[in-house]
Amino acid sequence: METKKPILIDGRIIAKEIKKELAQEVSALLDGGKRPPHLVAVIVGEDGASLSYVASKEKQSREIGFTSSVYRFPETLTEAELLKTVDFLNEDPEVDGFIVQLPLPKHIDEQKIIERINPRKDVDGFHPTNGGRMMYNMPSFVPATPMGIMNLLNRSGVETVGKNCVIVGRSNIVGTPMAILMSRNNAQANSTVTLCHSKTKNIKEVCANADILIVAIGKPEFIKEDMVKEGAAVIDVGIHRIDDSTKEKGYRIVGDVDFENVSKKCSYITPVPGGVGPMTIVSLLQNTLKAYKNEIYID
Ligand code: GUN
Fold this sequence. Notes:
Blueprint: E1 7-8, H1 11-31, E2 38-44, H2 48-63, E3 67-73, H3 79-91, E4 97-100, H4 110-116, H5 128-135, H6 144-155, E5 164-168, H7 175-183, E6 192-196, H8 203-207, E7 212-215, E8 233-236, E9 240-243, E10 251-254, H9 259-262, E11 268-269, H10 277-292
Parallel strand pairs: 1-11, 2-3, 2-4, 5-6, 5-7, 7-8, 8-11
Antiparallel strand pairs: 9-10
The chain binds guanine.
C-alpha cells in the first residue's frame, strides 16, 4: 500500500502568523498614543526549564511591542512574601497581566498563590474563577496549551464540527479544558468529545475511533499506529528527552505519539518539537492583549 504523507501542522509558522497580527495591533495602539500592554512573569528559584521558559516569554513579549518585566526571587522566598508580590501586581494599574511560573518551591502552596491572583490579570487562566467562567461559556482567560491547540486546528483547516474528538489525559491545564473547548457549540469546535484517562477501558479502540486525537498523557510514544484511525488529525502535547547514542547530542526529543509510524496513516499531525510547543507563549500574549483591552471582564 502506498503511504500518503500527512499535512504537518507547523506550530512555528502559525505562532509567527499570530505574533505578526498581535504586533500590528500593538503598533496601532502606540500610533494612537496608548501605552503598550504589560506582561509580568514572577519566578522563584533556579529551575532550568522555568528560567528558559520565562526568558522566552520576555523575548517574545518584547518582539511584538509589549512591555515585559520579570520578578526574580531566590528559592528561599517565603509564601507570605510571594503573596505580597501578588497583591502588589494585582493593584498595579500599569500591569495588565501576570503569571507566577510553576512549579514553586515545596514550602509554597501553589493553589493559595493562584487563588490570590486577580482573575482579571490571570493570563494563565489558572484561577478557579476563570475555570468556572469557561465551564459556563462566559468570557474567560483560557489556559495557554488548549487555547494554542484550538488555534492550530482552526488555522490548519481541520474540520471539527460533528467529529469524534478523543482527548487522552485529564489534567487541569490541558485535557479537561480541552474537552470543554472542543465540545462548545460554535463553528470552531462542536465535536463529540471523549476524555480518556488511566481507568479508561479499551483505550486502543476508543482512540482508533477518533477523527481528532489530542494526546496529553506524558508518556513517550504512547500512541501507536494501531490506535489511530486512517485519516485522523493527531495533536501531540507531549515532549520528552530520550537517551539515544546514535545522536550527536546523546538524546532525541519525542512526543506522546509514535510520530514515525502514526504519521503514515493520519491526515494531519503536529511534530515534536515545533507543533504545540511554540503556540503556548503566543496564547499567553493573546490573553495579555485581551486583559489590556478589558475584553474578558467588562466593567
Ligand atoms: N510552568 C510550565 N508551564 C507553565 C505555564 O503555562 N504557566 C505557568 N505559570 N507555569 C508553567
